[in-house]
Design brief:
- The protein is mainly β.
- The protein has a single domain, classed as Calycin beta-barrel core domain (Lipocalin, Beta Barrel).
- The protein contains no helices and 11 strands.
- The chain has strands at about 15-20, 25, 35-45, 50-60, 65-75, 80-85, 90-100, 105-110, 120-130, 135-145, 150-160.
- Strands 1, 2, 3, 4, 5, 6, 7, 8, 9, 10 and 11 form an 11-stranded antiparallel β-sheet that branches.
- The chain starts with 15 loop residues before the first strand and ends with a strand.
- Bound molecules: protoporphyrin IX containing FE (HEM).
- Protoporphyrin IX containing FE binds near residues 26, 125 and 154.
């Protein structure tokens, strides 16, 4: 959009609403594989910041499983990106990384949770958002907990909603 602030204009390809094309795949050594649907919303609200909200539900029962929302900022004049994130699990994160072309790679920079958060505790998150040549958006997410080393938890592809 014309009003997109220069500071985040290199992320304009994310803006708008997305929905998983087919159910995403969830996995982890400690979990049974699962399938989920997810919608993503990225909007610019007149600041050099992108606001986002992700909602994920069980593909069969439609029960809400995971939600996160936050803000995306870029370091002026660089390709450094920060996601400032709050998750329904209680996890609060700053993820940082780089934008190269239409590929955004992020890794936990800081992390906090309520004193009574459920275990296991997440230690690190790594994720990649990549725009595919066909216009679909792919997200792959790995994490480590105090029980497991860095392992993939999620893989999902989204298409743009009109
Ligand atoms: C379980 C973290 C996103 C679905 C878990 C567990 C952790 C975790 C730590 C427990 C693993 C264990 O017991 O060893 C995260 C983080 C996420 C994320 C950090 C994003 C940054 C999602 C999303 C979904 C999802 C988008 C989509 C539906 C589940 C399910 C379980 C699970 C179904 C197993 C049941 C449960 O313990 O609630 N996740 N998760 N997660 N996650 Fe995620």
């Amino acid at each position: 959009p014309a009003n997109l602030d220069k500071a985040v204009s290199s992320l304009d390809w994310l803006l708008g609403n997305w929905e998983s094309v087919e159910p995403g795949k969830g996995s982890y050594p400690s979990l049974k594989d699962f399938r989920y649907t997810e919608d993503l919303h990225f909007a610019q609200m007149g600041q050099p910041i992108i606001n986002f909200m992700f909602n994920a539900s069980d593909a069969e029962t439609k029960k809400i499983l995971h939600r996160e929302c936050g803000f995306i900022r870029m370091q002026t004049g660089t390709n450094r990106v920060a996601f400032i994130i709050a998750q329904n699990s209680g996890l609060v994160e700053v993820e940082e990384g780089e934008l190269v072309g239409k590929k955004l790679s992020l890794h936990t920079q800081a992390l906090a949770r309520p004193s009574f958060a459920k275990e296991p505790h997440v230690k690190e998150v790594s994720r990649v958002f990549q725009l595919q040549p066909d216009g679909k958006l792919e997200q792959t997410l790995s994490m480590s907990t105090d029980k497991q080393p860095m392992t993939q938890h999620l893989h999902v592809t989204y298409s743009r909603l009109p």
